[in-house]
Amino acid sequence: MVPHPKEGYLMVMGREELSRWEQRIQDSPALTPAKKREAIRMFFGAAHAVTADKQGRILLPEKHCESAGLGGEVVFIGARSRFEIWSRDRYEAAASSSLAIYQEAAEAIGL
């Protein structure tokens, strides 16, 4: 689990996906080697391993909840190879502002 660095939600992904993000940082031509090392350090420094209990629950670290603004109702959003945990209010605001983009994409692909 890693807090998104800008958008205020938690990204929950497997080890393979974490490795793919590390590789994307390594492959980025926009970053110097020193910036790549720092970005990887920050990314993995913020990562927290989670496992589900017998009832399928996971314990969210308090610092991650604070950074994502989680405190009341949350929503789980599937996102390809990961899922995201958002505060309901923050997600509704983000989804509202993204609706036109989604509709444009859906029309462009004939959905």
Structure overview:
The chain has one domain: Transcriptional regulator MraZ domain (Chemotaxis protein chec). 50% of the residues lie in helices and 16% in strands. It has 4 helices and 4 strands, in the order E-E-H-H-H-E-E-H. It has helices at residues 15-27, 33-46, 62-68, 88-108; strands spanning 2-3, 10-13, 74-79, 82-87. It has a 4-stranded antiparallel sheet with strand order 1-2-4-3.
Number of domains: 1
Secondary-structure class:
alpha+beta
Strand content: 15-25%
User: How many helix segments?
Assistant: 4
| DSSP strand tally | 4
Report the CATH topology name: Chemotaxis protein chec
Q: What's the helix and strand layout?
A:
Elements: E1 2-3, E2 10-13, H1 15-27, H2 33-46, H3 62-68, E3 74-79, E4 82-87, H4 88-108
Explain briefly what this protein structure is.
With 111 residues, this protein is of the alpha+beta class.
